[in-house]
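ARCHIVE CARD
Drawer: 12
Card no.: 0347
Subject: one protein chain, sequence and derived structure
Cross-reference: see card 0346
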Amino acid sequence: MTAATRILFVDNEPRLVDELRGLAGENGDSWELAFAPGSEAALAALNARGYDAVVSEAGLAGMAGVDLLEEVRRRSPGTIRLLLADAASREGTIRAAGPAHQSLARPSGPTAVRKALRRALALRRLLRSDQLLATVARIEHLPALPHLYRKVVEELGKATASMARVAEIIGEDVAMAPEVLKLANSAFYGSNHGGASIDGVSSIERAVQLLGFDTVAMLVLRAGVFRAFTGTPVPPALLEAIGDHSVRSTRAARIIARMERVDQRVADDAVTAALLHEIGILVMAANLPEYRDVLEQQQQDGGPIGRFEQALLGTTHAAVGAYLLGLWGLPDGLVEAVAHHESPAAVEEQDGIDVISIVAAAGALAHLYGPGPFEPEPAVRFEIGARERWPDWEASCQSELALGSTR
């Protein structure tokens, strides 16, 4: 008999947990729900026994909900952590992104909380499957989240964030600064964003101003991640193809997010996930000698790479990539999107236009406007939420992705 999933709710009053207990019972969820009226009681409960998930109100007496979840992460890194919070500032949202796997708007009813918990628990089951863990255990070198990216994101999360400070951080990296200047001086940004003078852009601060914070952050992340695979067994042509496809996917995700006017957090997660959705290919190609057999079989027979990975290795690059991003502590919505970018229909209770839909659509659209490393899953466009919007997304991507190169 499967053990019940233990969930601890930390709130100033028990109404939500009572409502959720009734809803879970009606739907046959095997959940054991506990309630703690504040941070001290929650820490005592955590000391007494382990919990699979902790759901905390943001405004607790004594210790704020974000700080409580940070302590939960320290004590039990594998515990799912959800934060219930009022609409927050960008600074508060970024601060919560570390300790909280997901933030839900307050007040969130029991249906929304149950959905978030079910999806988070399903993601944990995927990332802890025997096949995936057996593969990951044989990978000697998992790349770290680039330090420069962490510093840039931390700066952008501050209310006092400035282009001068971001430029100063980038200027500390002798390899990154030329990349930023190169992009700022490209024909795409010079002609379409009205920024470059006849003499070009030579100042890092001016380059950051021209490119914008979001583009700079993505450029830093891309350069840091892909730099980690230079000089490894990954074929240079494969590394280049995935890099170019990732940039096109990022642009497509940004276009879709803008068209659908999604929440900024959803847009940020979708753009980052689109950039990193194929990272599992690089991880396996760099560490598993038999991945050469996967590549050779795919080149010989054709078709989506995930099918050959599953047949020969028992897992896929989507699962390995999601596992890595989970280790990095990136948000659940982002990790989930990477895990299911080739199989969005596998996600229970998929929302209409969420991070998963945007990333799956962006990856498929990116294949239409430039060579991808491998063929996409043909059914993806029919599995995404809001699939009726595909023609509009395709039309916008067709006009906008052709404006500049992928670099």
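Annotation on reverse: The longest strand covers residues 5-10. The chain has a mean pLDDT of 81.
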